[in-house]
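Incident log, structure service

09:12 report received: a user says their structure output differs between two submissions of the same chain.
09:20 pulled the input from the user's history:
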Amino acid sequence: MKFVFFGGEPLAVPVLNELKKSGLLPSLVVCNPDRPSGRGQNLTSPPAKEWAKNEGVEVFQPENYKDGLAKEKLNSDQWDLFVVVAYNFILPNWLLAMPRKGSLNVHPSLLPRLRGASPIRTAILENLPEEVGVSIILLDEKMDHGPIIEQMPLEMNTKNWPILGPTLDLALANMGGALLADTIPAWLNDEISPQEQDHEQATYCSKLDLDLRKLEINPEKLPVGIEARKVWHTICAFSGIGDTYFVHREKRIKIKQAEWTDGGSLIIKRVIPEGKKEIDFKDYLNSVI
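09:34 re-ran on a clean worker, output below:
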Protein backbone atom coordinates (compact mmCIF):
# COMPACT_ATOMS: atom_id res chain seq x y z
CA MET A 1 0.00 0.00 0.00
CA LYS A 2 1.30 3.44 -0.93
CA PHE A 3 -0.40 6.46 0.57
CA VAL A 4 0.38 10.15 1.08
CA PHE A 5 -0.35 11.91 4.35
CA PHE A 6 -1.28 15.61 4.22
CA GLY A 7 -1.26 17.04 7.74
CA GLY A 8 -1.15 20.08 9.99
CA GLU A 9 -1.41 20.81 13.68
CA PRO A 10 -2.62 19.98 16.23
CA LEU A 11 -3.87 16.64 14.90
CA ALA A 12 -1.22 15.45 12.43
CA VAL A 13 1.44 13.90 14.67
CA PRO A 14 -0.94 12.04 17.02
CA VAL A 15 -2.74 10.58 13.98
CA LEU A 16 0.59 9.57 12.43
CA ASN A 17 1.57 7.88 15.68
CA GLU A 18 -1.64 5.85 15.68
CA LEU A 19 -1.07 4.81 12.07
CA LYS A 20 2.46 3.74 12.92
CA LYS A 21 1.16 1.53 15.77
CA SER A 22 -0.82 -0.38 13.15
CA GLY A 23 2.13 -0.65 10.79
CA LEU A 24 0.80 1.99 8.39
CA LEU A 25 3.60 4.35 7.41
CA PRO A 26 2.97 6.85 4.62
CA SER A 27 5.32 6.91 1.67
CA LEU A 28 5.23 10.70 1.68
CA VAL A 29 4.25 13.36 4.24
CA VAL A 30 3.00 16.69 2.87
CA CYS A 31 2.98 19.60 5.33
CA ASN A 32 3.40 23.35 5.59
CA PRO A 33 6.69 25.02 4.64
CA ASP A 34 9.11 25.94 7.41
CA ARG A 35 8.17 29.31 8.94
CA PRO A 36 9.83 31.89 11.23
CA SER A 37 8.74 31.35 14.81
CA GLY A 38 9.29 32.70 18.32
CA ARG A 39 10.91 35.90 19.46
CA GLY A 40 14.03 35.22 17.42
CA GLN A 41 11.93 34.43 14.33
CA ASN A 42 14.07 31.37 13.68
CA LEU A 43 13.02 29.19 10.76
CA THR A 44 11.07 26.31 12.32
CA SER A 45 9.90 23.03 10.81
CA PRO A 46 6.30 21.89 11.37
CA PRO A 47 5.97 18.92 13.76
CA ALA A 48 4.78 16.63 10.95
CA LYS A 49 8.07 17.21 9.13
CA GLU A 50 10.09 16.34 12.22
CA TRP A 51 8.04 13.18 12.68
CA ALA A 52 8.63 12.14 9.06
CA LYS A 53 12.37 12.76 9.29
CA ASN A 54 12.57 10.59 12.42
CA GLU A 55 10.74 7.79 10.60
CA GLY A 56 12.74 8.08 7.38
CA VAL A 57 9.68 9.21 5.41
CA GLU A 58 10.08 11.65 2.54
CA VAL A 59 8.66 15.15 3.08
CA PHE A 60 7.12 17.60 0.60
CA GLN A 61 6.32 21.21 1.61
CA PRO A 62 4.57 23.05 -1.22
CA GLU A 63 3.83 26.76 -0.91
CA ASN A 64 0.70 26.33 -3.02
CA TYR A 65 -1.00 24.15 -5.61
CA LYS A 66 -1.02 26.67 -8.44
CA ASP A 67 2.49 26.65 -9.92
CA GLY A 68 2.55 23.06 -11.19
CA LEU A 69 5.29 21.88 -8.81
CA ALA A 70 2.89 19.99 -6.56
CA LYS A 71 1.17 18.34 -9.51
CA GLU A 72 4.49 17.26 -10.96
CA LYS A 73 5.69 15.90 -7.63
CA LEU A 74 2.54 14.03 -6.67
CA ASN A 75 1.90 12.74 -10.18
CA SER A 76 5.31 11.08 -10.26
CA ASP A 77 4.05 7.89 -8.59
CA GLN A 78 0.98 5.67 -8.41
CA TRP A 79 -0.83 6.14 -5.11
CA ASP A 80 -3.46 3.97 -3.48
CA LEU A 81 -4.78 6.65 -1.15
CA PHE A 82 -4.37 10.18 0.15
CA VAL A 83 -5.08 10.95 3.81
CA VAL A 84 -5.80 14.56 4.86
CA VAL A 85 -5.72 15.63 8.51
CA ALA A 86 -6.01 19.29 9.61
CA TYR A 87 -4.16 20.43 6.50
CA ASN A 88 -4.47 24.16 5.90
CA PHE A 89 -4.95 24.05 2.12
CA ILE A 90 -8.15 23.50 0.19
CA LEU A 91 -6.95 20.76 -2.13
CA PRO A 92 -7.87 21.01 -5.84
CA ASN A 93 -10.07 18.41 -7.49
CA TRP A 94 -7.28 17.11 -9.72
CA LEU A 95 -5.33 16.19 -6.61
CA LEU A 96 -8.21 14.59 -4.68
CA ALA A 97 -8.93 12.30 -7.64
CA MET A 98 -5.31 11.28 -8.19
CA PRO A 99 -5.06 8.16 -5.96
CA ARG A 100 -6.72 4.87 -6.87
CA LYS A 101 -9.08 4.95 -3.87
CA GLY A 102 -9.54 8.68 -3.52
CA SER A 103 -8.73 10.94 -0.58
CA LEU A 104 -9.88 10.34 3.00
CA ASN A 105 -10.17 13.09 5.60
CA VAL A 106 -10.25 12.81 9.39
CA HIS A 107 -12.54 15.58 10.69
CA PRO A 108 -12.94 16.17 14.46
CA SER A 109 -16.72 16.45 14.68
CA LEU A 110 -19.75 14.30 14.01
CA LEU A 111 -20.48 15.50 10.50
CA PRO A 112 -22.57 17.06 9.11
CA ARG A 113 -22.42 19.01 12.37
CA LEU A 114 -19.65 21.57 12.79
CA ARG A 115 -18.23 21.67 9.31
CA GLY A 116 -15.39 24.16 9.09
CA ALA A 117 -12.16 25.39 10.63
CA SER A 118 -12.64 25.10 14.41
CA PRO A 119 -14.98 22.20 15.31
CA ILE A 120 -13.19 21.20 18.54
CA ARG A 121 -12.92 24.63 20.09
CA THR A 122 -16.38 25.67 18.85
CA ALA A 123 -17.90 22.62 20.53
CA ILE A 124 -16.31 23.73 23.80
CA LEU A 125 -17.20 27.40 23.45
CA GLU A 126 -20.82 26.78 22.46
CA ASN A 127 -21.35 23.87 24.89
CA LEU A 128 -21.96 21.11 22.33
CA PRO A 129 -20.66 17.89 23.93
CA GLU A 130 -23.08 15.78 21.89
CA GLU A 131 -21.28 16.82 18.70
CA VAL A 132 -17.79 15.80 19.83
CA GLY A 133 -16.30 12.90 17.91
CA VAL A 134 -14.51 12.08 14.67
CA SER A 135 -15.66 11.43 11.13
CA ILE A 136 -13.74 9.88 8.27
CA ILE A 137 -15.07 11.08 4.95
CA LEU A 138 -14.25 10.73 1.28
CA LEU A 139 -13.27 14.22 0.21
CA ASP A 140 -15.08 15.98 -2.61
CA GLU A 141 -14.91 19.51 -3.99
CA LYS A 142 -16.90 21.05 -1.11
CA MET A 143 -15.68 21.68 2.44
CA ASP A 144 -16.40 18.74 4.80
CA HIS A 145 -19.14 17.67 2.43
CA GLY A 146 -18.15 14.22 1.18
CA PRO A 147 -19.76 10.90 2.09
CA ILE A 148 -19.04 9.38 5.50
CA ILE A 149 -16.80 6.31 5.60
CA GLU A 150 -16.71 5.85 9.40
CA GLN A 151 -17.78 7.87 12.42
CA MET A 152 -17.34 7.62 16.17
CA PRO A 153 -18.54 9.81 19.06
CA LEU A 154 -16.20 10.52 21.96
CA GLU A 155 -17.64 8.86 25.04
CA MET A 156 -17.11 11.14 28.02
CA ASN A 157 -18.31 11.79 31.51
CA THR A 158 -20.45 14.92 31.19
CA LYS A 159 -19.36 15.91 34.69
CA ASN A 160 -15.91 16.50 33.21
CA TRP A 161 -17.24 18.70 30.42
CA PRO A 162 -15.91 21.03 29.15
CA ILE A 163 -12.40 19.71 28.60
CA LEU A 164 -9.40 21.98 28.13
CA GLY A 165 -8.81 22.55 24.43
CA PRO A 166 -5.38 20.89 24.13
CA THR A 167 -6.63 17.84 26.03
CA LEU A 168 -9.61 17.45 23.71
CA ASP A 169 -7.41 18.04 20.64
CA LEU A 170 -5.20 15.13 21.64
CA ALA A 171 -8.07 12.83 22.61
CA LEU A 172 -9.79 13.31 19.25
CA ALA A 173 -6.53 13.03 17.29
CA ASN A 174 -5.70 9.73 18.98
CA MET A 175 -9.22 8.42 18.46
CA GLY A 176 -9.29 9.59 14.86
CA GLY A 177 -5.92 8.02 14.14
CA ALA A 178 -6.96 4.66 15.61
CA LEU A 179 -10.24 4.74 13.66
CA LEU A 180 -8.37 5.63 10.48
CA ALA A 181 -5.91 2.77 10.99
CA ASP A 182 -8.83 0.34 11.25
CA THR A 183 -10.61 1.90 8.28
CA ILE A 184 -7.85 2.07 5.67
CA PRO A 185 -7.50 -1.69 5.02
CA ALA A 186 -11.27 -2.16 4.82
CA TRP A 187 -11.61 0.84 2.52
CA LEU A 188 -8.89 -0.38 0.17
CA ASN A 189 -10.52 -3.83 0.07
CA ASP A 190 -13.92 -2.36 -0.89
CA GLU A 191 -15.50 -3.53 2.37
CA ILE A 192 -17.07 -0.14 3.21
CA SER A 193 -19.96 1.61 1.45
CA PRO A 194 -19.82 5.43 1.79
CA GLN A 195 -22.96 7.06 3.19
CA GLU A 196 -24.00 10.50 1.98
CA GLN A 197 -24.26 13.10 4.70
CA ASP A 198 -27.64 14.57 5.62
CA HIS A 199 -26.79 18.01 4.26
CA GLU A 200 -29.97 19.58 5.63
CA GLN A 201 -28.59 18.97 9.14
CA ALA A 202 -25.26 20.67 8.46
CA THR A 203 -23.93 23.37 10.78
CA TYR A 204 -20.78 25.43 10.29
CA CYS A 205 -17.96 26.96 12.28
CA SER A 206 -15.32 29.44 11.17
CA LYS A 207 -12.02 30.32 12.77
CA LEU A 208 -12.57 31.47 16.34
CA ASP A 209 -12.88 35.22 16.83
CA LEU A 210 -9.87 36.06 18.98
CA ASP A 211 -11.72 39.05 20.39
CA LEU A 212 -13.79 36.54 22.37
CA ARG A 213 -10.71 35.82 24.50
CA LYS A 214 -11.40 38.98 26.50
CA LEU A 215 -13.33 38.14 29.67
CA GLU A 216 -15.51 40.79 31.30
CA ILE A 217 -14.74 39.77 34.87
CA ASN A 218 -13.63 41.45 38.07
CA PRO A 219 -10.74 39.39 39.51
CA GLU A 220 -11.50 40.72 42.98
CA LYS A 221 -14.97 39.18 42.79
CA LEU A 222 -15.09 36.28 40.36
CA PRO A 223 -18.43 35.34 38.78
CA VAL A 224 -20.56 32.51 40.12
CA GLY A 225 -23.28 30.28 38.72
CA ILE A 226 -24.13 30.46 35.02
CA GLU A 227 -21.79 33.37 34.36
CA ALA A 228 -18.87 31.49 35.91
CA ARG A 229 -19.69 28.48 33.74
CA LYS A 230 -19.63 30.60 30.58
CA VAL A 231 -16.24 31.98 31.56
CA TRP A 232 -14.92 28.45 32.11
CA HIS A 233 -16.10 27.37 28.65
CA THR A 234 -14.26 30.32 27.13
CA ILE A 235 -11.08 29.56 29.08
CA CYS A 236 -11.17 25.95 27.89
CA ALA A 237 -11.91 26.89 24.27
CA PHE A 238 -8.97 29.27 23.95
CA SER A 239 -6.49 27.31 26.05
CA GLY A 240 -3.26 26.95 24.09
CA ILE A 241 -4.38 29.13 21.18
CA GLY A 242 -3.87 32.60 22.61
CA ASP A 243 -5.47 32.08 26.03
CA THR A 244 -8.11 34.28 27.64
CA TYR A 245 -7.45 37.51 29.50
CA PHE A 246 -9.18 40.22 31.49
CA VAL A 247 -8.36 43.88 31.97
CA HIS A 248 -7.73 45.01 35.54
CA ARG A 249 -6.58 48.48 36.50
CA GLU A 250 -5.93 49.22 32.82
CA LYS A 251 -3.58 46.25 32.45
CA ARG A 252 -4.17 43.07 30.46
CA ILE A 253 -3.92 39.94 32.64
CA LYS A 254 -3.61 36.65 30.75
CA ILE A 255 -5.01 33.51 32.36
CA LYS A 256 -2.55 30.60 32.11
CA GLN A 257 -4.14 28.10 34.47
CA ALA A 258 -7.62 27.74 35.91
CA GLU A 259 -9.95 24.97 37.02
CA TRP A 260 -13.59 24.16 37.66
CA THR A 261 -14.29 22.62 41.05
CA ASP A 262 -16.72 19.83 41.92
CA GLY A 263 -18.64 22.44 43.85
CA GLY A 264 -19.22 24.47 40.71
CA SER A 265 -16.76 27.28 41.29
CA LEU A 266 -14.24 28.88 38.95
CA ILE A 267 -10.71 29.09 40.32
CA ILE A 268 -7.96 31.07 38.59
CA LYS A 269 -4.56 29.71 39.56
CA ARG A 270 -1.86 31.25 37.34
CA VAL A 271 -1.76 34.52 35.36
CA ILE A 272 0.64 36.67 33.39
CA PRO A 273 0.19 40.38 34.21
CA GLU A 274 0.95 42.68 31.30
CA GLY A 275 4.70 43.23 31.00
CA LYS A 276 5.55 40.76 33.76
CA LYS A 277 6.29 37.08 34.31
CA GLU A 278 3.79 34.35 35.14
CA ILE A 279 2.74 34.28 38.82
CA ASP A 280 0.13 32.75 41.10
CA PHE A 281 -3.22 34.49 40.85
CA LYS A 282 -3.30 34.95 44.63
CA ASP A 283 0.08 36.73 44.49
CA TYR A 284 -1.25 38.98 41.77
CA LEU A 285 -4.26 39.95 43.86
CA ASN A 286 -2.09 40.57 46.91
CA SER A 287 0.09 42.89 44.86
CA VAL A 288 -2.77 45.10 43.69
CA ILE A 289 -5.29 45.06 46.53
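09:41 both user submissions now match this output. Likely a transient worker issue. Closing.
09:42 reviewer note: The chain has eight helices and 15 strands. Helices lie at 12-21, 47-55, 69-74, 93-96, 119-125, 165-188, 225-238, 281-288.
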